Amino acid sequence: MNTSRGMDRLLIALLLLSSGVVVPNLLLLPSSVVACSIVTIVHKGKFVTTVLRFLTLWLCLYLLVATGRYISGASLRSLVVQGSGSLGLALGVSFSVLLVVTGPPAETLQAFERLRVPRGFAYALLSVLRLLPEIKDVGSRQIALLELKGIAGRGFRGRCVAYGRIIGPLLVLLLERQSTHARSLEARGFFELRRLRPIGRGVTLTGRGVISAILLLLNAVLWCWVARWIS
Amino acid sequence: MDFVGPEFELVGARRTLKVPVQTITVPSVVRVTGDDALLNAAFALGWLGFSQESIGETGYCVTLAEGRPSVPLNLNAKHYVGPDFRWEVSGFWPTVRDELAMGDLRELNPDHARVVDALGITALMDRDPRRLSGGETAKVILAAHLVRHPRFLVIDRVLDELDVTARTRLLGELKGLLPEGVVLAAGQFEETGVDITVSTDSEEARWTAIPQRDVPYRCPREPTVGDLKLEVVRSRDPRPSASMRIEGFKVLRPAEPVFEPISCSLAAGDLVFVMGANGCGKTSFLEGMAGLLKSQGLIDLRTNGQGVPPQQFFALSPQDPRCDITETSVEAELLTASGGRLVPQVLLDELGVSPEVMGSSLCDDIGLQKLISVIAATVRGKPCCLLDEPSLYLTRAFRSVTGRAICRYLNEGGIVFCSSHDGDLIDDLRKGGVKYQSQDSIATRGLRGASDTPTSPGQND
User: Fold this and answer.
1) Is A141 on the interface with B (CB under 8 A)?
2) Are B311 and A147 inside 8 Å of each other by CB?
3) Which of B70, B124, B385, B446, by CA, is between 20 and 30 Å from A153?
4) How many domains does one find in chain B?
5) What is the CATH number of the domain that holds B172?
6) Partner residue opposite A105 with nearest CB, options B92, B145, B314
7) Neighbour tally for B237: CB within 10 Å
């Protein structure tokens, strides 16, 4: 396991979260696409997959935030055109989440530990972030078994009915799973293991991490400057 | 050193069990048997002084005898491994080695190596723990607990997952691995390596000392490590209603074949035992046939001479029943399984499913879930049943119900594929009224690098 790579990932997530807050709303999408390109090119990732995942996450988060604001009295126009600050946050959060979720969790966990984040907190955060892939895995197996039983129909409607049928058992299953997992880690002494050395003593970022961090900073500054120039 | 257990009473909706004071020598391996699996688990947890909260999950309430204090135990010294052991795999660590060390950068020490050797998982150390078979995962999780040297360890029905050789070897070495520990193991395994058996079937727990046997347990049917064996038992009265032909069949997981190609032809009423050590590909074989995994080769399925797709031909009862159960009550699950038709009372009486079982909740008891998953597969009206370890997690009473359900299905002209480590179930099916004409074996080599449990002396006698 490479702790430095986990550290890279956390730094990049932090930068993306900050740039989501500082870059003006109207320029967030182009700035995020450039940020996606930087991260995927420097870290040799798959560009299309990263962008698609990012857009899906962003859409879900933005819809959630916007619905909340709409219910609390914000106008539709202000949400779509001005964004009222929520767009930036949604973009930053979604990109950061994506970055942490897609990397090996062990590296991220160790990086958190080097930053003196308590083990229990880091574990809880990563568990929440990994819930989506787990729901997908367990859900698709349940759907496949329903199809074999002849209960789940084909096509979009059949899938919707099948998901409606499994949603209750699926949630119960995931809750039990998390509780078993936490109990096991506690019994095995996970939260009492010897602490790793904190950051600054022999632990560094990788070259790729440094390059992408500098490029992301420049990207944020550039888009802030463009916004000032336009206005 | 001796351990004095507390005097207490377990009270549940169906049963009450009194547990007297009992002193045992440390180290010891205690086997807990009885027809109520949840009561067995509650007994083990209560006796070792687990909290009321843990025991409450089994549906039982513990009441300590007046004047007797609770067992003073350090919480971290007590470990419980139950039927949901698969969920103990964290998913954080990329290899089994990291899973055992839990990301601690220390190398595994010689003491760890002894546990790894006893469980026969040396070959698995660099594999992804999320990609292991059920039995291999059980071994890894048991190792993960054993390397922490618990003073008290409850193994609730997990040993049933292990192949016979691995189980016998582990039971023989448990006391050496935990020289200051007490192990309470619930399940239907044999008594080799066990010091004391405690039965929960009567009103008061009964303790029996077991004399140590030097003769290793013999399982002549289980093939050698890594091999997958199909034992085909031909019906004396084959019917033309259903038939299947497999040629060059292999399962790819994810892109590499799990075992070498298999070919066979079967007719209605035939019974196939899928056998082999943990990790040889039994589950992959069954799930590949059902179309849940990618496979190659020809599978020709026919009912009354007409070709049919796998969805119409196979009913599957998976190894872990929790993914299969979507309803909360037994009645609703059987209704769903049989396509909305009520399962006739005559049939339920014939199988021995009591009204009490029919009215039970499916939420907590994995044994009941497994039983209903198997019965549901046999009443679905499909020509072929794929049963992945149908006797897993079951008590004696539930095992006989399962046996009757399978025999009834075979006698009605169904084809059954049944994977099992359990020699008793195989014998039960033979005695269950199914008439056989002949028997032949098809063996193939597993290609996935199964766990390295060596063949014990006498195994293949």
Assistant:
1) yes
2) yes
3) B385
4) 2
5) 3.40.50.300
6) B92
7) 13
- How far does B217 lie from chain A, in Å, by closest CA? 31
> Beta-carbon neighbour count of residue B415 at 10 Å?
26
- Domain assignment present for B459: no
User: Given the DSSP bridges, would you call strands B23-25 and B306-307 parallel, antiparallel or unpaired?
Assistant: unpaired
Same domain, B201 and B234: no
Note the residue count of chain A. Answer: 231
For residue B375, which residues of chain A lie inside 8 Å, CB to CB?
none
Helix (H, G, I), strand (E, B), or coil: what is residue B387? strand
pLDDT class for B459, splitting at 50, 70, 90? very low
Q: Is residue B216 part of a domain?
A: no
Residues B112 and B196 in one domain: yes
CA–CA dist B344, B322 (Å, integer): 25
- DSSP secondary-structure letter at A79? I
DSSP string, B80-129: EE-TTGGGG--S--SSHHHHHHTT-SSPPPHHHHHHHHHHT-GGGTTS-G
- Say if A111 is an interface residue toward chain B (CB within 8 Å): no
Q: Closest-CA residue in chain B for A165?
A: B326
B211 pLDDT tier (thresholds 50, 70, 90): confident
- Cα B103 to Cα B93: distance, rounded to the nearest angstrom: 7
Q: Which of B76, B91, B292 sits opposite A189 (nearest CB)?
A: B76
Q: Is the peptide bond before B27 cis (omega within 30 degrees of 0)?
A: yes
pLDDT in tens, A90-146: 777 777 777 776 777 777 777 787 777 887 888 887 787 777 778 888 888 888 888
- ipTM value greater than 0.85: no
The encoded tokens of residue B30 equal 């205690």
Domain shared by B43 and B113, yes or no: yes
Is B84 in Cβ contact with A177 (below 8 Å)?
A: yes
Q: Are B195 and B242 members of one domain?
A: no
Same domain? B234 vs B262: yes
Beta carbons of A177 and B104 less than 8 Å apart:
no
Q: Are residues B402 and B253 in the same domain?
A: yes
Q: Which residue, of B165, B181, B209, is where some domain finishes?
A: B209
Residue numbers in B near A146 (CB within 8 A): 326
pLDDT at B461: 30
**Residue B41 domain-assigned?**
yes
* B205 & B247 share domain: no
Q: Which segments of B157-238 are extended strands (E)?
A: 182-186, 196-199, 206-209, 227-235
Test B337 with A185 for CB contact under 8 angstroms: no
Cβ-based contacts under 8 A for chains A and B: 94
Do the Cβ atoms of B311 and A183 come within 8 Å?
no
Residue B362, in any domain of the structure: yes
Q: Are strands B295-303 and B306-307 parallel, antiparallel or unpaired?
A: antiparallel
User: Whole-angstrom Cα distance, residue B182 to residue B152?
Assistant: 5
CA A42/CA A179 separation, integer angstroms: 38
Main-chain dihedrals φ then ψ at residue B306, nearest 5 degrees: -100, 135
- Per domain, the residue ranges of chain A are 3-112+202-230, 118-192
Contacts of B364 in chain A (CB under 8 A): none
Please list, in sequence order, all residues whose beta carbon lies within 8 angstroms of the beta carbon of residue A71, skipping any fewer than 6 positions away.
none
The nearest CA of chain A is from the CA of B12 a distance in Å of 22
B163 and B279 within one domain: no
Segments forming the whole domain that contains residue B397: 229-440
Q: How many angstroms separate the most distant Cα atoms in chain B?
A: 74
Q: What is the pTM of this model?
A: 0.83
